[in-house]
Amino acid sequence: MIEALSYEFIQNAIIAGLLVSFTAGIIGSLIVANRMVFLAGGIAHAAYGGIGIAIFTGIPIFLGTSVFAVIVALFMAFVTINQREKIDVFIGLIWAVGMAIGIILIDLTPGYNVDLMSYLFGSILAVQRSDLYFMGGLFGVIILVLTFWYRSFLAVSYDSEYARLSGVNVAFFYTLLLILSALTVVIAIKVVGLILVIALLTIPIYIAQNISSSLSSMMITSGFIASFFTLTGLWLSYTFNLTSGACIILVSAAWLILFILFWGTKK
């Protein structure tokens, strides 16, 4: 693997893995703290509609998927805030319709033979330099947003009623978090794919949550844990010619089982 570091596609894969891992660690911590895992999963699957739109219209994949995912996130935020009792139905509907739109539009695209596996289960070794610019830009935006509004996100995450009474616009930050979650899902497409992204947004966070004393430390710790999982999965993927996303998630699951066994015994 050492000699492989001289190849540009390996360098791109490592950088992408680190960017996505820390992004997933930060946003995943907020998703778990706000009990929004199911919502994030719905956005991840519905985002396939954006891939279909991008391929059918000929626009960049990241751009088309990002716009579509943000629209889905805004709709989910509206439903959650105004009709919370019906959110399960709408998530299931959006989940299915989004994927159906993507599949149909890809079928209708003349002469396009899409590799479904690369979008559904990830292909980190296929990351291009232009993809890294998008990932890096989003990571920078997330850092700026959290630096500016960290206290508000903290208040909303752990006591939304108190935050509302304190003058925090809970609906705004809830919607903003869903939008950031949607964009995180989009950049994770190349690393673990739409089907497996929810695992990257939860497994490292579960481990970090048990060994961290604050939200900020949980974000940082989960980012490092996710990076370890991603780089280990990348090594396995390259060495044994396996699907990258599946390797990353299996590595994550194996460490989660070991952690639960160790932590349970320790407690």
Task: Compose a concise summary of this entry.
By secondary structure, this protein is mainly α. It has helices spanning 8-33, 37-46, 48-57, 61-82, 87-108, 116-120, 129-158, 160-165, 170-187, 193-200, 203-211, 215-240, 244-266.
Report mean pLDDT, rounded to a whole number. Answer: 89
- Could you name the CATH homologous superfamily? ABC transporter involved in vitamin B12 uptake, BtuC
Unreliable parts: none
Pattern of helices and strands: HHHHHHHHHHHHH
Query: What level of helicity do the residues show?
Result: over 70%
Give the percentage of residues in beta strands.
under 5%
Tell the overall outline. globular
What oligomeric state do the depicted chains represent?
A: single chain
Rg measurement, Å: 18 Å
Please, could you describe this protein's structure?
This protein has 13 helices and no strands. The protein has one domain (3-266): ABC transporter involved in vitamin B12 uptake, BtuC (Orthogonal Bundle). The chain is mostly helical and 267 residues long. Helix 2 (37-46) packs antiparallel against helix 10 and helix 3 (48-57) packs parallel to helix 5 (87-108). It has helices spanning 8-33, 37-46, 48-57, 61-82, 87-108, 116-120, 129-158, 160-165, 170-187, 193-200, 203-211, 215-240, 244-266. 81% of the residues lie in helices and 0% in strands.
